[in-house]
Amino acid sequence: MNPQTLIIVDDAHVNRLLPSILLKQAGHRVFECGTGEQALRLMELYHVDQVLLDIAMPDRNGLDICRQIRRMPQYAHVRLIAYTAHAQPLEVKLF
Known about the structure:
By secondary structure, the chain is an alpha/beta fold. Helix content is about 35%, strand content about 20%.
C-alpha cells in the first residue's frame, strides 16, 4: 500500500490515539485535530488523501464538514470516513 496523508478529526483526544498510532505504524502521515475548522486549515496546507471525521463534535459536526469539503472541487479526490462513538441510531443525510 502506498503511504497516504490522513487527518483524524475528533474533539476527544483519546478517540484519535489508536487510529493515529496504527496508521503511523502502517507508514502513513497522520495529522490530528480537534475541530472541523482545524481540519479544513490542514487541508489547505497539505495534500490530504483521507479524512476520518467524528460526526458528533461540538463546534461543527463532521457532517457539516463533509458537506463543505464535497462542495470544493479541489478536494474531490479526498476520501471521507465519518464515524461516531455514540451507540444509538443516527439518521444521516449528506446531500
